């Protein structure tokens, strides 16, 4: 049976799809590109980075950005693929190991979170990179199912965690029931256990409740999750209901999961005063470190302390994600880890 590795397992690199003037980042392009460059330089201290650029001219500009940020050029790789936007978590490849232990990259379809945004070029990025040799000899397997990487979490042992409406959705997968989707994921990802959430949402989220904004595996028996304790908060009811669902989940041995709450940052607002989906569950695990989104709120300190307890053997590194959250996503959303043995 195939196996879908957990994010804490060894990686060969992290993929970033860079912003450009034709993306929604245009009004803050310089600021967000500086963040990308600093992030690529930071990740490059631990493992390679695959920087996906729209064309050769864009790649040259990205190289210059990375040099200014002090990135080690030996740690940086480059791929060329036209893009609509930059959410690599949702258009990037999902790696599995086959029954014989070989690597395989699954290329699920991406339709802009149910057709909310144009995604025709993003949907072809994995195919383009694979054809260009960026993944070496690792084969690519197309899958005729809309699935975003941010919608699924695994313990690496056959359990998958997701919010039902992000997969069982007529705008994403018309006509497919939950049972039908489970059969596809069992075959393609090797999933044997499904933990479906019916609740959970944070204000400003365009994804309909991606699991990587709400709940994450930190170990096979441990889940960290977005918790809200303020009854006046707009997200209180949904997050409280989600917490009750989590308390009812059991691990493969029949024991309750260890649940570790994450603090709620003070509301981060856009220029119109609308709340943005800031949260700490959108962290990124890389070899030897955990990168934690921060938003310049007092809760940042508590969040970082929580991650130090969760991952005592990893460096805990804050990343100021205020530029990212203005477009409705954060650190995990813009990145996709590539499992060990994939990146050429």
From TrEMBL:
This one is known as: Agmatine deiminase
The record's GO molecular-function terms, alphabetically, read: agmatine deiminase activity; protein-arginine deiminase activity
**Entry keyword set:** Hydrolase
**UniProt xrefs under Pfam families:** PAD_porph
Q: Which Gene3D superfamilies match?
A: L-arginine/glycine Amidinotransferase, Chain A (3.75.10.10)
Which InterPro entries does this UniProt record tie to the protein?
Peptidyl-Arg-deiminase_porph
Its domain of life reads Bacteria
Q: Which PANTHER family match?
A: AGMATINE DEIMINASE-RELATED
């Amino acid at each position: 049976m195939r196996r879908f590795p957990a994010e804490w397992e060894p990686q060969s690199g992290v993929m970033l799809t860079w912003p450009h003037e034709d993306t929604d980042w245009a009004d803050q392009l310089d600021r967000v590109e500086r963040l990308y460059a600093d992030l690529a330089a930071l990740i490059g201290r631990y493992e390679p980075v695959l920087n996906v650029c729209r064309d050769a001219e864009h790649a040259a500009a990205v190289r210059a950005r990375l040099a200014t940020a002090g990135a080690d050029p030996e740690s940086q790789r480059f791929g060329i693929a036209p893009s609509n936007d930059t959410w690599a978590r949702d258009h990037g490849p999902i790696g599995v190991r086959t029954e014989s232990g070989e690597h395989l990259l699954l290329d699920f379809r991406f339709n802009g979170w149910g057709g909310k945004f144009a995604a025709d070029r993003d949907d072809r990025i994995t195919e383009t990179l694979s054809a260009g040799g960026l993944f070496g000899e690792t084969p690519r397997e197309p899958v005729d199912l809309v699935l975003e990487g941010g919608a699924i979490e695994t313990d690496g042992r056959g359990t998958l965690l997701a919010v039902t409406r992000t997969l069982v959705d007529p705008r994403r997968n018309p006509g497919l029931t939950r049972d039908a989707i489970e059969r596809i994921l069992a075959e393609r990802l090797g999933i044997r256990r499904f933990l479906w959430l019916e609740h959970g949402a944070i204000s400003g989220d365009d994804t309909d409740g991606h699991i990587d904004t709400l709940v994450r595996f930190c170990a096979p028996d441990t889940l960290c999750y977005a918790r809200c304790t303020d009854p006046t908060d707009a997200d209180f009811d949904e997050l409280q209901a989600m917490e009750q669902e989590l308390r009812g989940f059991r691990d493969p041995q029949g024991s309750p999961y260890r649940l570790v709450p994450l603090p709620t940052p003070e509301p981060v607002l856009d220029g119109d005063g609308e709340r943005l989906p800031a949260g700490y569950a959108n962290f990124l695990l890389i070899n030897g470190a955990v990168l934690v989104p921060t938003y310049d709120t007092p809760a940042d300190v508590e969040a970082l302390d929580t991650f130090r307890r969760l991952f005592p053997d990893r460096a805990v590194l804050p990343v100021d994600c205020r530029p990212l959250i203005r477009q409705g996503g954060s650190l995990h959303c813009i990145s996709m880890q590539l499992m060990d043995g994939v990146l050429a």
